[in-house]
Amino acid sequence: MPLAIRKIIDISLELDDSKFKMRTPPGFKRDMQFQIEVLKEHDAPGGAGQIVRGVHMRLHAGSHIDAPEHNVPGGAQVHQLSLETFAGDAVIADLRHAVPGKPISAEDLEKAAGAMIRRGDRLLLRTDVNKQYMINDWQKRSPYLTAAATQWCIDKGVSVVGYDFYHGNDEPGSPRVFNSSRTFSEHGIVTMPYLNNLDEITEQRVTLVALPLKLLGAEASPVRAVVLLG
What's the predicted TM-score (pTM) here? Predict the structure, then answer.
């Protein structure tokens, strides 16, 4: 039976190597930004008239999923996660009131999504901050999940948490860097950072499709995240 799709909304962050950039915090062996390179031109001698490009990028560039191994040594890698994780029901939580830089509490999540959320759902956190990705104090303007909000997601049985804001801000007094994301990884919850265009979604419960690449031995993968409206 054909899948009835009325509209497809692209909620991925655009990758344009003339504009896109990433933070490179301490600890990296070397920097790697997003760059597309032409490896062969159409008119290359003996080249069969084809153009071929290559791409240099981190697996965490743009919209992507983080498997538990990203934060947990020995945790599940991308190829070990079920494909069903990345396609199915998702709930939008409108949290724009937490901008700029405010906490997102368990009460906020309950008010925004508690009536809709079901076990196994994917939770997409909307703030619209990524509309100005990496500009206008983007990182400082991004809110953060409190420990109680993180636990709320765990208790509700959420399978994926997606963000349209910088997801690395921590609650004051947090015991470790990226505490919220680490806690999700420790509980087997996949995180999906750097989403965009959640403001274009007119329904609260939607179908999300964000399939990772079939990578072996990887802690993350780029995704083309889309919402399907029936």
Answer: 0.95
